[in-house]
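Q: What would this complex look like in 3D?
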Amino acid sequence: MSLNLNLIPEYKTAADFFRAHDNLLLLVHEKPDGDALGSVLGAAHLLQKLGKTVTLVNDDPIPDKFRFLPMADRFKLPEEVEGKFDNVIAFDCGDKRRLGRSGALVADGANLLNVDHHVTNDRFGTENLVDLDAAATCQIVFKIAHQLGLELDCDTATCLYTGLLTDTGGFRYSNTTEEVLLIAANLLKKGVAPYNIVDRVMETMTWPQVLLIRAALDTLGRDESGRIAWITITREMIESAGGCDEDVEGLVNYPRNVEGVEVGISFREAAPGKVKVSFRSKHVVDVGAIALEFGGGGHARAAGCTMDGDVDAVKEKVLARVREVTAQPEAGAGA
Ligand code: 5GP
Ligand code: MN
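A: Here is my prediction, written as structure tokens for the whole assembly.
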């Protein structure tokens, strides 16, 4: 299969970084998702192939559904790691704050490579490979392997396929390009079991997750125009379903998928006085820009932020801004 990959010059920077340094700390954003874990673990396999020693750290425990990923058992909490690191690579992370407590393990003056695909990325690395055309950071890691001339084994391919799958919503979102599908096909050739992965990470739901869907749908709201819809998830709802924060992931697609809706939003009470807001848009509204205004970030069609205040206050503030943006003619209002 011929792979005509678009390798911007920063791929060489990243490949050189992989080759040049050893004893590397590998980081991803807190509350890691399939792309964060797939990309960092895929890269960990590549670095091991190059004979490097890697340390994997995250603020949060790895979600059960991703524990099958080869080397996922190597993750440590920042408190379990001694000293600071002079050579660090961050994956799928738009800014340093998103590294959480783990960011404190980066030594002053460290060589820091930032590998990411978020449009809101602030280039926090000493070297940066930010490929905005990539659907997933896993796609970028695949291209780094290509730049390095490394063959992928099945374990590495499994990690990379997982992030490609989750960040494209199962190859359905608008970021699903020809290159994404070519890479996916290439990964299958390495022995990836696609049904096995999609079943574990996208299809299978825990019982609390389904209970939470039932409760969340009861809160579904829509504005007069029918172009904005939202759901609300309180701590009490999560607790009475016997679930956890991770179970809320994906619920924002219910309001987003309603016919006529341009922007879907979920409001999750993260802690008393803290609300996690997730935005999804369908065609025109740049929700990454809205999330950025509220101190978060993300992509044009999927973004998020965490805000201070109770759920009602945050909802009022966010909906007012989303209404304003969605009513603008360039947002397709009146069309
Ligand atoms: P989700 O709504 O699923 O948590 O996140 C959707 C997208 O927005 C992801 O690409 C994620 O990285 C980004 N995102 C979510 N929350 C934040 C945040 O607080 N800050 C930044 N910079 N990005 C976020
Ligand atoms: Mn990603």
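A: To summarize the key features: The pocket of guanosine-5'-monophosphate (ligand 1) is lined by residues 94-95, 98, 118, 120, 278, 296-299, 302-306 (CB under 6 Å). The two ends are 43 Å apart (CA to CA).
Q: Very helpful, thank you.
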